[in-house]
Write a structure and sequence with these properties.
The chain has four helices and three strands. It has a three-stranded antiparallel sheet. The mean pLDDT is 97. Helix 1 runs antiparallel to helix 2, helix 1 runs antiparallel to helix 3 and helix 2 packs antiparallel against helix 4. By secondary structure, it is mainly alpha-helical. The protein has a single domain, classed as Ferritin, core subunit, four-helix bundle (Ferritin, Up-down Bundle). Bound molecules: fe (ii) ion (FE2) (2 copies). One fe (ii) ion binds next to helix 2 and helix 4. It comes from Acetivibrio thermocellus AD2. Its cofactor is Fe(3+). One of its GO terms (molecular function) is oxidoreductase activity. InterPro entries: Ferritin-like, Ferritin-like_diiron, Ferritin-like_SF, Rbr2/Nigerythrin, Rr_diiron-bd_dom, Rubredoxin-like_dom, RUBY_RBDX.
């Protein structure tokens, strides 16, 4: 499916920009968490970086017929601090997406009857809710000077659904099979 309306296309480009930057930011903060002695929080950052890549890829795919150069305005969180501070930046970014950005983009896509964009925004919105919670759990541990307790992080490569320790038989958001999940 490809997007037809200019407003939804703008929102897809902005979301693509935001997800792309979140991807890079989480890889960077992940490396810093590793250096600071929080390997599980580093793993969480790297896994969620991949989920943001999945979202960016979905948005990019919806824009496949909108060829050309664009200047993209997108929200991004900046700053380097302690692992607790970096996690706060991550929480803030995720909450912005959950409470402001994706609900508005999703409603616009519904109003403009853009089925593909609705799917792409819906997938991202559902995953970002989980990301906000997981980063918040990680921050709770880090505030006590502890690493997060986890065995592995699993990401659905279709929608970015994120889950700790065991992948479900079927993705609750998009229906992808357990075997498809990428393990971190
Ligand atoms: Fe996220
Ligand atoms: Fe999924």
């Amino acid at each position: 499916m490809a997007v037809k309306n200019a407003m939804t296309a703008d929102f897809l480009r902005s979301a693509y920009g935001g997800e792309s930057m979140a991807h890079m930011r989480y890889l960077h903060w992940g490396d810093l968490a590793e250096k600071d002695g929080f390997p599980n929080i580093a793993k969480l950052f790297r896994a969620i970086a991949y989920a943001e890549q999945v979202h960016a890829g979905n948005h990019f795919n919806e824009l496949k017929d909108q060829k050309g150069d664009y200047t993209v305005t997108a929200g991004a969180v900046f700053g380097i601090g302690t692992v607790v501070e970096n996690l706060q930046g991550a929480i803030n970014g995720e909450l912005h997406e959950v409470e402001q950005m994706y609900p508005v983009y999703l409603e616009a896509a519904k109003f403009q009857d853009e089925k593909g964009a609705q799917r792409s925004f819906h997938f991202a919105l559902e995953a970002e809710k989980i990301h906000a919670q997981l980063f918040s759990d990680a921050q709770k541990a880090a505030k006590e000077g502890k690493d997060m307790q986890l065995e592995a992080v699993y990401i659905c490569p279709v929608c970015g659904h994120t889950v700790l320790d065991n992948a479900p038989d079927k993705c609750p958001v998009c229906g992808a099979k357990k075997e498809m999940y990428k393990k971190f």
